[in-house]
Amino acid sequence: MSVTAAAGFEAAGVAAGLKSSGAEDLALVVNRGPLQNAAAVFTSNRAKANPIIWSQQVIADGVANAIVLNSGGANCFTGAQGFQTTHATAEAVAESLSLSAGDVLVCSTGLIGDQLDRDKLLAGVSAAAEALGTDGGDAAARAIMTTDSKPKTAVRSLEGWTIGGMAKGAGMLAPGLATMLVVITTDAVVSSNELDAHLRSATRVSFDRLDSDGCMSTNDQVTLFASGASGVSPTPSAFVAALTELCLDLAEQLQGDAEGASHDIAIRVVGAATEDDAVEVGRSVARNNLFKAAVFGNDPNWGRVLAAIGTTAAAFDPYVVDVSMNGVMVCSNGGPDQPRDLVDLTDRAVDVLIDLKEGDASATILTNDLTHDYVHENSAYSS
Amino acid sequence: MSVTAAAGFEAAGVAAGLKSSGAEDLALVVNRGPLQNAAAVFTSNRAKANPIIWSQQVIADGVANAIVLNSGGANCFTGAQGFQTTHATAEAVAESLSLSAGDVLVCSTGLIGDQLDRDKLLAGVSAAAEALGTDGGDAAARAIMTTDSKPKTAVRSLEGWTIGGMAKGAGMLAPGLATMLVVITTDAVVSSNELDAHLRSATRVSFDRLDSDGCMSTNDQVTLFASGASGVSPTPSAFVAALTELCLDLAEQLQGDAEGASHDIAIRVVGAATEDDAVEVGRSVARNNLFKAAVFGNDPNWGRVLAAIGTTAAAFDPYVVDVSMNGVMVCSNGGPDQPRDLVDLTDRAVDVLIDLKEGDASATILTNDLTHDYVHENSAYSS
């Protein structure tokens, strides 16, 4: 159901011909109201795709009626022609649905540096507008896939209101502010300002903590729409809790489908002086290719964990740190503890626990291992 | 000849039994004077191995008589026992050669987190002291190898004086200040203070610009000895020029032998506002796994170059940047220029030229591609 689980939303996913495979590649999600509140967070990469530049303008007033998303091309570094394509896409949605183009968000995903086929794209918009329905959420979730092996959706139904979402992403997973393409809808009654605050709060501890390969996309966008169709106004804490849980669910689905990965690694940093320190330490390990390759080889090479965190500016003494892997304390006080061959890394889920012994702050970073399949998929992407 | 090309130096390389293969694993280099001047630069990783902690104390006064280096174990995160092993190694060298232990530098390389076999190590020191000779440079260069496929040496003979060196390193190649294990000797007459300044000047634009895999070692050390045995005092500019050229030669040998690499990539950044900006931009590309995997696949995926530099804080406008690969301008002013299939990436050497169009500063970062063999070698290192 994804984005159509909440009342007030219609969606569609169609094949516009942008993907050479002929699969669905254009999704449209429309908020039928009564509210038209929306918020979005965007990649912090300074190299922003044309749809990001467009959508940042659209969302500025906290109102959006619809979002159109295409796979089969990122429309990034495509110059003025590329921006005109984004603009024309929003205009086509607006014309089909009797909206203002200034209230239509646009997202694109795929290869950077190639022009989208504008004719196919605009014909796809017409077809999607025809196909809109309250059962269109699953087709929309399929249409935004690129190298994803499966669609990613999540729904939470609470006391009289619902929140649902869809996500795509399998590589270039290292958000700066937001990440990947995600559309979340709710029928709760929430103002635009609240949506914005709640979305930033939820993404900060979910998508922002996912760092599959250290590579930040040019096209990341997480959008949250509220239709108010349930008539229910949840408390801010209840809404944030449900939204955060939904975002973590989608983030874990992204991690689980990361390109070529054979392990999902959760790096839990505890005892940090600050939460920022915990995030920096966790991210340094998540980005260490030697550690990630070792996990692929089922090798509990904890020295690479310490070598990674030694590159950070976080408060800690390397010679008092403890490191456990899958429950086995392999390093205590910066020296060897249990034998490394007690650690079993054959399961897909890997838990690394790092105790900095500096304070009470903590954070968990989600990442993946570095595998032959990752190299293979990313050495052949544009061919 | 490596470290024994310059007059006044003796060296040896012996098999102490630290490597299970039985290959040479312990090197000793001695400065017979008349001068005993030395300088060293060390990893900036806060997680420092025991020999680094020891050697930083030894070099503080600018005097050192000898350096002993072992492969087969990094002696890092091995606690008090590990530090005692380093100390005992220096004592054994001092006793064999009638020196003070406080003038003996120690380097170790290999797996982090395992204790070295102290008995084997000390017996190896005795054997190396027996084997010292002015023809020992090549054996010493072999003895410091870990996953290196070949020894790395370089020599420059100038007007009456000589400078030579050896290096080891094939992975974890991303220096912070210095990198890897490097020993350089000269028979020029140079004071300790000058050696220190010249070494920092040379490493800043050589080893510091090599970033094979973004992973900084815990054991990196570059040491420079001057014996003064030639009696020649070169001008500072002549000495720095020769030293820098020698360091670049060794850095390129390290790049060319990086674990599993199939391409040597030079990322030249021009038109930067500052040299720091140029280095930051070049390093962001050198650490982008998606770009590195694309080069492995002979795919000139320039969008990944721009996505990488978009994550930096350097002064530039992504929409005016030019990118060329192997002489083909694939991106001009942030948009597509020549077709990407004009770029031929089949040779090992790859040249990426990025023009930020902000100023006159430039820098070149050396890196490698991300390959199946890199994943393979680093998933099986400790097994």
Describe the structure.
The structure is a homodimer of 383-residue chains. Chain A is of the alpha+beta class. The two termini of chain A are 34 Å apart. The radius of gyration of chain A is 21 Å and the shape is globular. Chain A has helices at 50-58, 79-97, 118-131, 137-143, 192-204, 236-256, 275-286, 289-296, 302-309, 372-379, and strands at residues 9-14, 26-31, 37-42, 66-70, 104-108, 152-157, 162-168, 181-186, 221-226, 264-272, 322-325, 328-332, 335-336, 349-355, 361-368. Residues 175-179 of chain A have low confidence and may be disordered. In chain A, a hairpin with a 4-residue loop joins strand 6 and strand 7. Chain A has two domains: 2-256, L-amino peptidase D-ALA esterase/amidase (4-Layer Sandwich); 264-379, Roll (Ubiquitin-like (UB roll)). Chain A is built from ten helices and 15 strands. Chain A has a six-stranded mixed β-sheet. A five-stranded mixed β-sheet of chain A has the order 3-9-8-7-6, sandwiched between helices. Chain A has a four-stranded mixed β-sheet with strand order 1-2-4-5. In chain A, helix 2 runs parallel beside helix 3, helix 5 packs across helix 6 (236-256) and helix 7 crosses helix 9. At the A-B interface, helix 8, helix 9, strand 13 and helix 10 of A face helix 8, helix 9, strand 13 and helix 10 of B. Chains A, B: Keywords: Acyltransferase, Amino-acid biosynthesis, Arginine biosynthesis, Autocatalytic cleavage, Cytoplasm, Multifunctional enzyme, Transferase. Chains A, B: Pathway: Amino-acid biosynthesis; L-arginine biosynthesis; N(2)-acetyl-L-ornithine from L-glutamate: step 1/4; Amino-acid biosynthesis; L-arginine biosynthesis; L-ornithine and N-acetyl-L-glutamate from L-glutamate and N(2)-acetyl-L-ornithine (cyclic): step 1/1. Chains A, B: It is found in: Cytoplasm. Chains A, B: This is Arginine biosynthesis bifunctional protein ArgJ. Chains A, B: Substrate binds at residues 146, 168, 179, 259, 378, 383.
